[in-house]
Amino acid sequence: MGVANFRLAIISGNFFRKVLLQRHLIWNFVLRDLKTRYVGSFMGLFWSVIHPLVLLVSYTFVFSVIFQVRPSLKAIDNFALFAFCGMLPWLYFQDTVVRSCTSVIDHSHLIRKTLFPSEILPITVALSNLVTHVIGFTILLVALISYGVLGWASLLIPAYLFLLFLLAVGLGWLVASLQVFLRDTAQVLSVLMVFWFWFTPIFYQVEHVPSPYQSAIRLNPLTHVVEGYRDLLLENVLPDFYSFLMLLLFSVAVFGLGGFVFRNTKREFVDVL
Long-range contacts: 11-17, Cβ < 8 Å, 24+? Predict the structure, then answer.
């Protein structure tokens, strides 16, 4: 058993080492992805900002005006900022996983003809979406500064963003592998994302959920990301240690599992594609 685990560790280490060696190719694909999505568009990258802002305005109207929901935070009671702190990480995660699902299929012409390192595709999507996330995050920072609630704790946001990146890439590897063999994966994923969205406390706080369901919502790793963003940005306090530890363990586990599954299925891609 120990020998098997040792071999598994070596194989996994070699896989992730090869990914790091492809960093220049990854960078070129990130630039290519950004150009493909935005070059030729009059608004360019700003479309990636307009979309979440429209969602934010519409949801804010529904929840804060119609249902009159107010966040029970000490530092701020602005629902728009409360919701925006939850929407930013969710939109990054959702778009990365959904686009990663079809990334191998979309680049099948490269995989069939060359020894292409297909494992870089979900990473490319995650890094490309990071540009969008940073733009939206900059808008949020400007709003927080104007309200005077931004503090030193916000410097820890990169730690949460890094774990979110690992989680999104790991799940991206999993669904991309499944999509090659089960073409319904993308459709199933789109349905699951709807449920996942509402089980993530974007427009509400976990404390306001009936107690029988709170434990289930806290099993959602995105819950800890959203709460971490709010603690650091809106409350200027350090997040709960056990919450961060759970997110860390879950993100690393999904990242490792996704890499393991992708590595062991990619050899069959050429035959299926």
Answer: 11/263, 12/256, 12/259, 12/260, 12/263, 15/119, 15/259, 15/260, 15/263, 16/259
In the block, which residue shows the tokens 């409350």?
A: 235
- Alpha helical stretches, state H, the chain: 2-21, 23-38, 47-60, 79-101, 103-106, 108-113, 120-147, 157-181, 185-198, 211-218, 221-230, 241-265, 269-272
Band (pLDDT 50/70/90 cuts) for residue 40 is: low
Question: Which of 31, 84, 24 minimizes the C-alpha distance to 54?
Answer: 84
Write the pLDDT tens digit of every residue in 50-80: 777 787 788 778 877 787 777 777 667 778 8
Question: Distance between CA atoms of 2 and 94, rounded to whole angstroms?
Answer: 37
Tokens standing for 125? 């999507």
Of 167, 139, 176, 145, nearest to 226 by C-alpha is 167
d(CA 134, CA 137): 5
Give me the number of domains the chain comprises. Answer: 1
d(CA 90, CA 92): 5
Ordered DSSP codes for 215-239: HHHHTSHHHHHHHHHHIIIII-SPP
- The upper half-sphere exposure of residue 108, i.e. CA atoms within 13 Å in the direction of its Cβ, equals 15
Q: How far is CA 156 from the centre of its chain?
A: 17
CA dihedral 93, 254, 161, 133 (to 10 degrees): -20
- Whether 104 shows a pLDDT value over 90: the answer reads yes
Whole-angstrom Cα distance, residue 228 to residue 238?
8
Domain limits for position 224: 2-272
- Whole-model pTM? 0.89
